[in-house]
Design a protein that fits this description.
The complex is a heterodimer of chains A (about 160) and B (about 450). With about 160 residues, chain A is mostly beta strands. Chain A is built from one helix and ten strands; from the N terminus they run αββββββββββ. Chain B is α+β, with helices and mostly antiparallel strands and about 450 residues long. In chain B, the strands form six sheets. An eight-stranded antiparallel sheet of chain B has the order 13-12-9-10-11-14-21-19, with helices on both faces. Chain B has a five-stranded parallel sheet with strand order 3-2-1-4-5, with helices on both faces. Chain B has a three-stranded antiparallel sheet with strand order 7-6-8. In chain B, helix 5 packs across helix 6 (about 115-125), helix 7 (about 140-150) crosses helix 8 and helix 12 packs antiparallel against helix 13 (about 420-430). The longest helix of chain B is centred in the middle third of the chain and has 19 residues, at about 175-190. Chain B starts with a strand and ends with a helix. The mean pLDDT of chain B is about 95. Classes of the chains: A mainly beta (about 160), B alpha+beta (about 450).
């Protein structure tokens, strides 16, 4: 058994996040890891099939493929995370209907919210096909880098 | 204006230093950290931590909008930028000014005025501060010799069209200048397509000296004496001292006056440093640049003057009447700071990130350690490799050197490579003991020899 700690994994993921790489595969004793910056990516042949009975972690759209554990959310639900600090807006303008509601079906390119930094608004997309199961942030709340905003149950 | 909550927009030891100084003043602190620094000591001590972005500085610490947004959204009324990162970006100061956040530093206008080297030189000239004597463009070797005879040898030719050592010839007398001028001109022509040269006084043995100041924003500027930072490698300071004991008292007094006049002329506000080149042989100094921020090496000035500069920064920013006057600032003894770097001198000073598996810093009388490292901490590969600043204070330089040597001997770090062994060797070197250093000493005298010793 290797002595890899959660901290090491975190450091590794940060390295990946900061790099220009699009995918990273890692195999050491007792651990296999596949992460990708593209939302549809899956481990290419050769990595997934070596041993692991458990599947490699599903890549999250924001790039970090750690396992979201908010409440009793099933492991396979996909987190939509804040790409940086900013103010979270659920709707295009005050008083307008939210981009998405609980139970709503979304496609990878469905806009789910806005993140504002000094009056500069950035759209965030679902990154996956599925159903919105949780909205974890209140409108106009400050969100931080990596914070989970939505949980989406992917379609089978 | 009463400040209540300050955003600390930095990392490492300076972030921790600011958090502690702010708390001591009864201010609340919010640390704006990157994802890599969420578990740092500064994060543990701050009242609140917000994660700006990923480890990459460009997407976190270097994004002025993110930092000011974080300040606004967390209800901060002030922002301390520390050193490095955004600390000298006029854009950050301006963004703060526009959004009612007190910038703990100079005005954006001042940062612009001193940030551009040419603008700063004009400013220095207007304030009557000495600069390296130099000529205008020269048409011939005869003209060069005439000019050199006026300002005195040695001189160095420089290419008007570019730098990088091309077109540079050091001449120690008229003959060698006449002969070297043509050679330099041809070299400059080949390198830059323009053979035009000018002449500057050549400083054979230069020391880097700098004056610590604190501007009150109303034209009054306090100084906290000078520092000698001649121990450098590739323009990176490694050891800094205060006072600059190799300098005569009269020169030192002139140096302080020059710094105060320069920054007084723009009603400079908050902490700043005026850097000079000190020509040891001629006992003369020339203006280099202004650093519009708190500097890494500020603790040596604090030690000899008995002040807390970061606390003073916050007080000045908050508009509090300064409780110190120039006549209260009296220097005592000698202080030396050594920068502890996670770099491997045996491998070309290659950064050595990793986990600190053993951390046993020195302590005792007159020993201060500014660091955010603790046992099991990770030295991140994303940022500067400085992991600690070891500062010693003693009644005089010989005793300060001895104290530094003892402290370095006692300093045990494992898990990452450091420059501690190199620093120990420096503190044993006769030139360091005799204080006969210059800015090229470490690279040209010490390191070649050190390399041989260490294989």
């Amino acid at each position: 058994m290797s002595d890899v700690t959660p901290k090491d994994i975190e450091a590794l993921l940060e390295t990946f996040e900061a790099s220009d790489w699009s995918e990273m595969k890692l195999k050491i004793e007792g651990l296999e890891l596949f992460v990708s910056k593209s939302s549809g990516a899956r481990p290419s042949v050769g990595v997934g099939e070596i041993s692991a009975p458990a599947p490699a972690p599903a890549p999250a759209p924001a790039g970090i493929a750690s396992t979201p554990k908010h409440g009793a959310a099933p492991d396979h639900w996909v987190a939509v995370r804040a790409p940086h600090l900013g103010t979270f807006y659920r709707s295009p303008k005050p008083g307008a209907a939210p981009y998405v509601n609980l139970g709503q079906h979304v496609e990878p390119m469905t806009e789910v919210c806005l993140i504002e930094v000094m009056k500069l608004f950035t759209s965030l997309f679902a990154g996956v096909s599925g159903v919105v199961r949780q909205v974890l942030v209140e409108d106009s709340e400050l969100v931080e880098f990596g914070q989970t905003l939505f949980l989406i149950e992917p379609e089978a | 204006m009463r400040m209540r909550r300050v955003l600390v927009a930095n990392r490492g030891e300076i972030a921790l230093r600011i958090v502690r100084a702010a708390k001591a003043l009864g201010l609340e602190t919010v640390l704006a950290a990157s994802a890599a620094d969420r578990d740092s000591l500064a994060a543990k001590e701050a009242d609140r931590v917000v994660t700006l972005g990923p480890a990459l500085a460009r997407a976190s610490y270097l994004d002025a909008s993110l930092v000011v947004h974080a300040a606004k959204a967390t209800g901060c009324d002030a922002l301390h930028p520390g050193y490095g990162f955004l600390s000298e970006r006029a854009a950050l100061a301006r963004l703060c000014e526009e959004h009612g956040v007190t910038f703990v530093g100079p005005t954006s206008q001042s940062i612009e005025a001193v940030g551009d080297k040419l603008a700063a030189r004009r400013l220095a000239k207007a304030a009557g501060v000495a600069m390296t004597p130099g000529s205008a463009k020269l048409a011939s070797a005869e003209e060069a010799v005439a000019f050199a005879s006026e300002i005195g040898f040695p001189v160095v030719t420089k290419a008007s069209a570019g730098g990088g050592g091309r077109g540079m010839v050091v001449a120690r007398d008229a003959n060698s200048l006449a002969e070297g001028f043509e050679r330099a001109s041809v070299e400059a022509k080949e390198a830059f397509g323009d053979g035009t040269l000018y002449l500057e006084r050549y400083v054979e043995r230069a020391r880097h000296v700098e004056v610590q100041v604190l501007g009150l924003g109303d034209g009054r500027v306090l100084h906290f004496g000078e520092r000698d930072c001649s121990m450098q490698r590739r323009y990176q300071k490694m050891i800094e001292e205060a006072p600059a004991s190799a300098m005569p008292d009269a020169t030192r007094a002139r140096l302080h006056r020059a710094a105060v006049e320069l920054l007084g002329s723009i009603r400079y506000r908050n902490a700043g440093t005026v850097e000079f080149l000190y020509d040891v042989e001629r006992d003369d100094f020339y203006f280099m640049e202004v650093n519009a921020r708190i500097q890494v090496e500020h603790p040596v000035s604090e030690m000899i003057c008995g002040v807390d500069l970061v606390r003073l920064q916050l007080e000045v920013a908050g508009g509090a009447a300064p409780r110190v006057e120039q006549r209260d600032i009296v220097s005592h003894g000698h202080a030396i700071e050594a920068r502890i770097l996670a770099e491997d001198p045996r491998r070309g000073f290659l950064p050595s990130p990793g986990r600190i598996t053993r951390w046993r810093p020195p302590d005792g009388e007159g020993v201060r350690l500014d660091t955010a490292i603790e046992q099991e901490a990770i030295v991140s590969p994303y940022y500067d490799s400085m992991i600690a600043k070891l500062i010693v204070h003693a009644p005089d330089r010989p005793r300060a050197v001895a104290r530094l040597r003892d402290a370095l001997e006692a300093f045990a770090v494992e898990g990452v490579a450091t420059n501690i062994e190199l620093l120990r060797a420096v503190t044993r070197h006769p030139d360091f003991l005799a204080n006969t250093l210059d800015t090229r000493w470490l690279e040209t005298v010490f390191l070649p020899h050190y390399g041989q010793l260490e294989g």
